[in-house]
Every structure is written in structure tokens, then in C-alpha cells.
Amino acid sequence: MSFWRRLKEDLETAHVHDPAARSNLEIALNYSGLHAIWAHRLSHKLWQDPNTRLLARTVSQAARWATGVEIHPGATIGRRFFIDHGMGVVIGETAEIGEDVMIYHGVTLGGRSLEPVKRHPTVGDRVTIGAGAKILGPLMIGSDSAVGANAVVVKDVPEDSIVTGIPGKIRQRTPEKQEPLVDPATYIDPAMWI
């Protein structure tokens, strides 16, 4: 994919995920999560060559300083990934993120081992991860799932699930829970508003 098509896709993704997005210029200039993703693409490319790994780490640290988002250059990230607000996001070296994933500020995709093995989460496609969530270890978050704000997840999550709480409790989504309720007198599950 060409640089310009990828840039256009990134800007469209921001418009889809953020109702506050007003213009492509505003997004390109002011969205720190997007700046972090752009820097990650460069650092990840550098990381592929063992001779440029120091430079890759330097680029990622400069991006961390500028954006408040720390993405290790070894992490693998799919297309149309979006970080809303950005500040405090940490994505570890062996993390793998699918396509059409959205995460909010304060999210950690962290490890539970000091060994040089796969130690960070794998996130499937079309996953939303709420603010402050911690997903720890070499586990799998299944596609089409949602992780609630401040949830702590330490075990695999099947596809099409919702995870909330500490430790994270998993439940399958049902058709009636996929759309927000409109009657204010009816209880609304906070996980629906991640």
C-alpha cells in the first residue's frame, strides 16, 4: 500500500472512531495516538534489521517522549489501528494486534515473564479495549471482543466476548448487548460504553 493511501486510511480511521474529529488537518496535527502509530511503523521497519535496532529503540523512545505512548518496535500492529487520547498506553515487544482495533488511554499490553519468549498479548481483529485496561501475558483476546475500562485480563478471551472487572470476568456478547439501550430508565451495562 502506498504511503498516501495508508495516510488516507489512517485519517479515515480516526474519523470513524472519534466523533470529535473535525478535519484531516486537525487529526494529522493533533492526534498523539496517530503520531505514535506513525512513529511505530518507522521503528518497526528499523527493528527488522538487527543492525538498526538501536536506532529503532531510539525512534520509539522519542515517540514516547513526544506522545506519551510507548510501543516497542518489535510489536506487530495491523491496519486501521487507532489509539484514542493516547497518554499512558504501553504495548510490549511481542504483542500482536489485529486489524480494526481501537484502544483508549492508559491501556497496557504487558508481559508476565522476563524470558525472551512470546510474553505479551495477541489481540484479534475488531477488538475495543477500554481506558486503563491491563492485558497481561501471552494470552489471546478473540476477535470482535471488548475489554472494559480498568479490567485486568490474565487469561484467554474467546471471540465475541465482553470482559470486565478485576480479575476480568468473561461473558459472551448477545445481540441485545451489542447495541446501546435507549431507555434511560433501563440499566445500561457499562461495558457497552467502553
Explain the overall architecture:
With 194 residues, the protein is an alpha/beta fold. The protein is built from four helices and 15 strands. A hairpin with a 4-residue loop joins strand 14 (161-164) and strand 15. The longest helix is centred in the N-terminal third of the chain and has 16 residues, at 32-47. The chain is globular and about 40 Å long. 32% of the residues are buried. Residues 179-187 have low confidence and may be disordered.
Number of domains: 1
Strand order of the largest sheet: 3-6-9-12-14-15
Which segments are poorly predicted (pLDDT under 50) over 5 or more consecutive residues?
179-187
Number of strands: 15
- Morphology: globular
Radius of gyration: 17 Å
Class by helix and strand content? alpha/beta
Q: What is the count of helical runs? A: 4
What amount of the residues lies in strands?
15-25%
H/E order of the elements? HHHHEEEEEEEEEEEEEEE
The average pLDDT score comes to 89
CATH class: Mainly Beta
Distance between the termini: 31 Å
Roughly what percent helix? Answer: 25-40%
So, the CATH homologous superfamily? Hexapeptide repeat proteins
CATH architecture: 3 Solenoid
CATH fold assignment: UDP N-Acetylglucosamine Acyltransferase, domain 1
* Major sheet summary line: 6 strands, mixed
SSE topology sketch:
Elements (H helix, E strand, L loop, with lengths): L2 H15 L6 H7 L1 H16 L5 H15 L2 E2 L4 E2 L4 E3 L5 E2 L4 E2 L4 E3 L3 E3 L11 E2 L4 E2 L4 E3 L3 E2 L4 E2 L4 E2 L7 E4 L4 E4 L22
Parallel strand pairs: 1-4, 2-5, 3-6, 4-7, 5-8, 6-9, 7-10, 8-11, 9-12, 10-13, 12-14
Antiparallel strand pairs: 14-15
Helix pairs in contact: 3-4
